């Protein structure tokens, strides 16, 4: 089976999206790219993560042409491919409908540096304009809206996180959901203090060396 390790990782992290309450049912989507082979593994359309099997994960090329699998790819294949074309540093994309991040997106708010953990995205989490799901317009909005950040809100839709592997994209989505909740709660009772740019620059410098070095068995 082509890209078996990547397919298994998509199944595993799809289930983690459910247990971490980042989505429900079959909501959202995940992908991993193999740039050397010119292939992308992406979750299928409309299959609940609790029922997903590795063989259900679809393989396409970078033009979106079907390569292998028994299902239709996610309806959001377009913005996954657009992100891979726009950002050579990105190897994995994860899209969620997490409640607090989606609430921010429905309010039309970016998430500022209300907490230093916004650094998982960058200086903030920007907001991409609304477009109908699965359209070329949405793909353009996502690729342009994310800029150099690792996460972007999709207006009236959800969150997209990217990373050098699926584990890091998932961690970004999870931490940004926490920051979104903090921001929502802080704004509910007052005016939150936003960290200045110079402090976020220090945070991002420290994030660059945070954690353990990558291992060969890390998630692809």
TrEMBL record:
Signal peptide: none annotated. GO terms for biological process: pentose catabolic process. Residues 8-184 form the Class II aldolase/adducin N-terminal domain. One of its GO terms (molecular function) is aldehyde-lyase activity. It holds the Pfam family Aldolase_II. One of its GO terms (cellular component) is cytosol. Keywords: Lyase, Metal-binding. The keyword Lyase applies. The keyword DNA-binding does not apply. SUPFAM superfamilies: AraD/HMP-PK domain-like (SSF53639). This is Fuculose phosphate aldolase. It comes from Syntrophotalea acetylenica. The lineage of its organism: Bacteria, Pseudomonadati, Thermodesulfobacteriota, Desulfuromonadia, Desulfuromonadales.
């Amino acid at each position: 089976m082509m890209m078996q390790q990547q397919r298994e990782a998509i199944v595993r992290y799809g289930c983690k999206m459910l247990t971490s309450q980042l989505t429900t049912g079959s909501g959202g989507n995940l992908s991993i790219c193999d740039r050397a082979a010119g292939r992308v593994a992406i979750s299928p359309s409309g299959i609940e993560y609790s029922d997903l099997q590795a063989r259900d994960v679809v393989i396409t090329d970078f033009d979106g042409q079907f390569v292998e699998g028994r299902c239709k790819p996610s309806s959001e294949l377009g913005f996954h491919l657009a992100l891979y074309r726009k950002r050579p540093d990105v190897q994995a994309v994860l899209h969620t409908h997490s409640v607090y991040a989606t609430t921010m997106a429905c309010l039309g708010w970016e998430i500022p540096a209300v907490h230093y953990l916004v650094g998982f995205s960058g200086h903030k989490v920007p907001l991409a304009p609304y477009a109908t799901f699965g359209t070329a317009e949405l793909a353009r909005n996502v690729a342009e809206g994310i800029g150099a950040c690792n996460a972007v809100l999709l207006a009236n839709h959800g969150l997209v996180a990217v990373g050098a592997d699926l584990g890091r994209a998932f961690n970004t989505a999870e931490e940004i959901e926490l920051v979104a909740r903090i921001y929502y709660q802080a704004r509910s009772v007052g005016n939150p203090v936003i960290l200045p740019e110079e402090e976020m620059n220090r945070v991002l410098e420290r994030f660059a060396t945070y954690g353990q070095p990558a291992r060969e068995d890390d998630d692809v």
